[in-house]
Amino acid sequence: MRVLLLGGVSESLHIARRLGPGHLYSLAGLGRIPTDLHCAVRVGGYGGAEGLAGFMRQEAITLVVDATHPYAAQMSRNAVEACAATRVPCWALRRPGWQPQAGDHWRAVSGWNELTAALGGFARPFFTLGREPLAHLGEIPAEQYWTLRCLDPHPGNERCRVIGARGPFVLEDERALFQAQGFDVLVSKNSGSGATEPKLQVARELGLPVLMLARPELPKADREFDVTAALLAALAELGALIDR
Questions:
Q1: Does residue 101 fall inside a structural domain?
Q2: pLDDT of 81-122, one tens digit each?
Q3: pTM for this one?
Q4: Are 8 and 67 in contact (CB under 8 A)?
Q5: For residue 57, what are the domain limits?
Q6: In sequence order, what are the residues at sequence separation of 6 or more whose Cβ sits closer than 8 angstroms to the Cβ of residue 57?
Q7: CB-neighbour burial class of residue 239 (10 A; exposed 0-12, middle 13-18, buried 19+)
């Protein structure tokens, strides 16, 4: 039994901390690298589905667990394709998305062009999409000032501030940020993470609109779990976990 855990969400680190020696925790390279694990850690890409399949054969992987971000659709597709090629089971943690509540004003957008069109009329958007908006800093309309939040600090420009910060985010801190910056619209992915959900509560309290980037369609895995505990229980049945 040799598990390859593809990480990308906070739950994946929780799983990795329970994996025993001989298993692998794989990270794309963004963020901090954990040093308190019993399993091995691999950092970097694979070169697509074919490269991942080759790695799996080389390392004698017998189970892949896809715990990547809900928007990392290409990696999920690579995982399913590589598992099919190697006849290795693919399990996936599919975190449920947020659902709008009373008082929410959400608008779904399907991509960058639709998003920027929907921003017309707003002056101070708050982007929480990760690094993607950094490639568009030269396109900011004269009437807008952007605030971007992503994992690591990056230079902005005269019409953009970039905040490097990592969740979990505290409700009171989010309230203070929204008040200080005077945001008039929130731009978000529907990650479903409790660590980043407070921004939605603040937008609800202030009556601000939210432009929500639609989730990509993900491939069907052999087994899918919507909560971490169920996935951990299944791994425990296989003997892949260490005792706490």
A1: no
A2: 999 999 999 999 999 999 999 999 999 999 999 999 999 999
A3: 0.90
A4: yes
A5: 3-96+216-237
A6: 86
A7: exposed
